Amino acid sequence: MEAIWIYQFRLIVIGDSTVGKSCLLRRFTEGKFTDISDPTVGVDFFARLVEIEPGKRIKLQLWDTAGQERFRSITRSYYRNSVGGLLVFDLTNRRSFEHLKDWLEEAKMHVQPFQIVFLLVGHKCDLIQLRQVSREEAEKVALAFGMKYIETSAKDTVNVEESFTVLTRDIYERVKRGEISIQEDWEGVKSGFVPNVVHSSEEAVKPGRRCPC
Amino acid sequence: MLLVRGSVCALVDSLYSPPPSSRSEYDVYGFKTVPEDDEEERLVAKVRALDLKSLSLTEQEVSVGVKWENYLAGMGTREMARSPELKALVRSGVPHEHRSKVWRSCVEFHIKKFPESEKANYYENLLGVAREKQNPASKQIELDLLRTLPNNKHYSSPESQGIHKLRNVLMAFSWRNPDIGYCQGLNRLAAIALLYLEEVDAFWCLVVLVEVFMPRDYYTKTLLGSQVDQRVFKDLMSEKLPRLHSHFELHKVDFSLITFNWFLVVFVDSVVSDILFKIWDAFLYEGPKIMFRFALALFKYKEEEFLKLQDSMAIFKYLRYFTHTILDARKLMNIAFVDMNPFPLRQIQNRRTFHLERVRLELTELEAIRQTFLKERATDPDGRTLISDDEEDN
């Protein structure tokens, strides 16, 4: 049976190779963790429902992307059709942290003039001894990027649910406020099948959403 | 550590294998068929393994085996020459025990055009360079070695012979092809080749796949060739499976997002191993046309199931795993080699030429957008430094 959901959001997960994007998604959607997963070639797809308020469910369409740079020419169409994303780095890999700016620029370039809501994710927080990026430092960067920050571990199931829920809720609030609206020919946000929870903001769709960044 | 010359056999024949956990089960290729932990998964996997086993014991399979025995007996000690008879045999799948021989002969046929393949030390020299110097590919290769075919026992630990050989093949290849270096996906191709070929032959197999079979720029910086092939494949879908194609169009499902991967790694990880190796048999003999045939056949096989799905998300979900649910190799091969006819190579080449120009143009436009964007950012005081000093004020 098809579960009832009020919206469908399309999200992407980006970041350097081996930061753990696929593991994070697998833990979130299948509840499983494997120490080793083969590199994502091109893109992969996951889906899950989340409940953001009692009785209010949102369907998440999650696109996993390849980390190796040359695959960026393939993944560009996902940015455009996504309303949000996890920007992931590996807490034990300084370079992946330093590359965040490049990832963000790449994303912003492809989504303009739309906006995309990101959450900064410091992954593999279980590996305390190998940590190369401090929480304070990451929080500072998140602030500069205008994002929230969260530390996760797919291995120990730390903050995996939270990261996706925080991002989903963030987008949901913006949709409610009318900052993001449903548009034809855009896959980022779709309306569900429940007529009585449609928000007033959706009725007055403002054309040409501008990127506030 | 083993020397290159010390490891002379294909991995599937090697006596060495790490002690498998007692509850896991493996197929002849070394892939784990039954996982150790989850009871429910174990049960499902066992049923599946049995299904596959019974499919491999049918009269048809036995008759294919007999045909091969006859063919090889007739060949005696002569080299396998390309012939319509051999082509038909290869299309029916090569038995496990003859696969090393057949694959090697396919590779040998194609490397005749590379004079360096005649030189005794060509491969060893590349390895020598790789041992002495780093190149931009080395780091990513190292990162991916243990992430290659993680379900295969030949690649399961850093000490595995397979890992050692895989590193060599990929490093040597990256020195031979600096413009490609290493592209994720090549690791899987090399790993599959290494299961049946000696290390140096696996290296040449990778060379044949990338430099002979695939169009230019399949694995280079923009993956231009791969992008083109997906457009070509879309055209073929609309021609050969028009109902399914318009079903995808209607639901705005871009299936090439998933099929891109099939082509780049020639179905590794997308189909069950019994089918994978049969596809590779024909692929190594006939070349890239086989990828199109089987990609279409996979869709044809499950066309009705797709047509029942009326929601884009459900379609995407099914797209992601449906290939793993196909177990009957004979049925699939029949679709690929009979139902999909006629299948002229000329048509594929024409479509490639047509799309190549378009994708090139799009990439140029994209690059222009990138340059403009970067220029704007450089002159925009807010955008210049994302980690700006004013965060101190917050």
Automatic annotation (TrEMBL), chain A:
Gene Ontology biological process terms, A to Z: autophagy; Rab protein signal transduction
UniProt-listed Pfam families: Ras (PF00071)
Gene Ontology annotations for the cellular component aspect, listed alphabetically: autolysosome membrane; cytoplasmic vesicle membrane; plasma membrane
Entry's localization field: Autolysosome membrane; Cell membrane; Cytoplasmic vesicle membrane
CDD domains, sorted: Rab39
Chief localisation class: membrane
Similarity comment: family membership: Belongs to the small GTPase superfamily. Rab family.
Matches recorded under InterPro entries: P-loop_NTPase (IPR027417), Rab39 (IPR041818), Rab_GTPases_membrane_traffic (IPR050209), Small_GTP-bd (IPR005225), Small_GTPase (IPR001806)
Membrane topology recorded in Swiss-Prot or TrEMBL: Lipid-anchor
Keyword Membrane recorded: yes
Name of the protein this chain belongs to: Ras-related protein Rab-39A
Any one GO MF annotation of this record: GTPase activity
UniProt keywords, alphabetically: Autophagy, Cell membrane, Cytoplasmic vesicle, GTP-binding, Lipoprotein, Membrane, Methylation, Nucleotide-binding, Prenylation
From TrEMBL, chain B:
PANTHER family per UniProt: RAB GTPASE-ACTIVATING PROTEIN 1-LIKE (PTHR47219), TBC1 DOMAIN FAMILY MEMBER 2B (PTHR47219:SF20)
Residues in Rab-GAP TBC domain copies: 93-287
A Pfam family that the UniProt record links to this protein: RabGAP-TBC
GO cellular component: cytoplasmic vesicle; cytosol
Key word Transmembrane helix present: no
Signal peptide per UniProt: none
Organism: Anguilla anguilla (European freshwater eel)
Protein name, per record: Rab-GAP TBC domain-containing protein
InterPro entries in the cross-refs: Rab-GAP-TBC_dom (IPR000195), Rab-GAP_TBC_sf (IPR035969), Rab_GAP_TBC_domain (IPR050302)
MF (Gene Ontology): GTPase activator activity; small GTPase binding
Keywords, ordered alphabetically: Coiled coil, GTPase activation
